């Protein structure tokens, strides 16, 4: 596994595994704690999450500020546009975002450390996302920003009319509200 792209002063990483493939299919190590530690990505790894979405489903922009949670995210099936936003107050890149294309062909993963918001848009049906997390889910300490807030400047590749957001994500705070009282 190697880091092939970094953003936000080396905090967010796009990782690429070594894939062994032939006519029968492929094999790769999706997670190996010692290799991630060599890359500077340390656990503890405490929780795995798995989501299934159809094309047009937009999940996020989520973050966990009480018991901050880092996430190692990958697509197991399908393809997604993965977005990470810097939510660290005082950061020179506060409010900026980076976009990664993830799919089940390249098998790349994104490291989203604590202090960053995360969202993804499913580009295929179905899209299965896997998350390996460094903290347990804490409903009382989670937050969200509406991912289609124009202040974020995210260029979603589908028309807004085709995006499917949960009621919770639609009602999430604006980026201006977050910036007035940041959690990180």
What would you say this structure looks like, in words?
The chain has helices at residues 33-38, 167-170, 175-180, and strands at 2-7, 12-16, 20-22, 25-27, 47-53, 58-64, 71-77, 79-86, 97-103, 109-112, 116-122, 127-133, 142-144. With 184 residues, it is mainly beta. The mean pLDDT is 97. The protein is 9% helix and 40% strand. Strands 1-2-10-7-12-5 form a six-stranded antiparallel β-sheet, with no helix packed on it. A five-stranded antiparallel β-sheet has the order 9-8-11-6-13, with no helix packed on it. It has a two-stranded antiparallel sheet with strand order 3-4. The protein contains three helices and 13 strands, in the order ββββαβββββββββαα.
What count of structural domains? 1
Mass-distribution shape: globular
Structural class: mainly beta
Rg, Å, rounded: 16 Å
Question: Low-confidence parts, pLDDT < 50 over ≥5 residues?
Answer: none
CATH topology: Jelly Rolls
Helix content: under 10%
Query: How large is the share of residues in beta strands?
Result: 35-45%
CATH architecture level-2 label: Sandwich
What layout of secondary structure does this protein have?
Blueprint: E1 2-7, E2 12-16, E3 20-22, E4 25-27, H1 33-38, E5 47-53, E6 58-64, E7 71-77, E8 79-86, E9 97-103, E10 109-112, E11 116-122, E12 127-133, E13 142-144, H2 167-170, H3 175-180
Antiparallel strand pairs: 1-2, 2-10, 3-4, 5-12, 6-11, 6-13, 7-10, 7-12, 8-9, 8-11
């Amino acid at each position: 596994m190697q880091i092939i792209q970094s953003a936000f002063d080396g905090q967010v990483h796009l990782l690429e595994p070594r894939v062994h493939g032939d006519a029968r299919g492929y094999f790769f190590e999706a997670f190996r704690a010692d290799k991630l530690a060599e890359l500077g990505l340390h656990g503890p790894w405490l929780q795995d999450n798995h989501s299934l979405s159809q094309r047009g489903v937009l999940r996020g922009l989520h973050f966990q500020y009480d018991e901050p949670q880092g996430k190692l995210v990958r697509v197991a099936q399908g393809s997604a546009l993965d977005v990470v936003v810097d939510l660290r107050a005082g950061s020179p890149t506060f409010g900026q975002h980076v976009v990664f294309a993830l799919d089940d062909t390249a098998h790349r993963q994104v490291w989203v450390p604590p202090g960053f918001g995360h969202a993804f848009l499913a580009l295929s049906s179905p899209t299965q996302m896997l998350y390996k997390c460094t903290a347990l889910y804490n409903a009382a300490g989670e937050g969200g920003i509406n991912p289609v807030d124009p202040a974020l400047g995210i260029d979603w590749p589908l028309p807004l009319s085709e995006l499917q957001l949960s009621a919770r994500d639609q009602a999430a705070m604006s980026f201006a509200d977050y910036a007035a009282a940041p959690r990180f």
